Amino acid sequence: MEYKFSDRVSNLKPSAIREIFKYAADPSVVSLSAGNPSPDAFPTKEIAEISAKVLAEDPISVLQYSVSEGYAPLRKHLAEYMKKEHNTGSDNDDILITTGAQQIMDLCSKALVNEGEVVICEAPSFIGSLNTFRSYNAKLVGVPVEPDGMNTEKLEEALKANPNAKLIYTIPNFQNPSGVTMSLEKRKKVYELAKKYGVLIIEDNPYGDLRYSGEYVPNIKSLDTDGIVIYAGSFSKVISPGMRVAYTIAPKPIFQKLVVCKQGNDVHTNIWSQYVCDEFITKYDFNAHLARLREIYTKKASFCMELLDKYCAPKITYHKIDGGLFIWCDLPEDIDMPKFCRELVLKKVCVVPGNAFLTDENETCHSFRINFSTPTDEQLERGIKILGEYANSL
Ligand SMILES: Cc1ncc(COP(=O)(O)O)c(C=O)c1O
Question: Which residues belong to CATH 3.40.640.10 in the chain?
Answer without folding.
Answer: 65-283
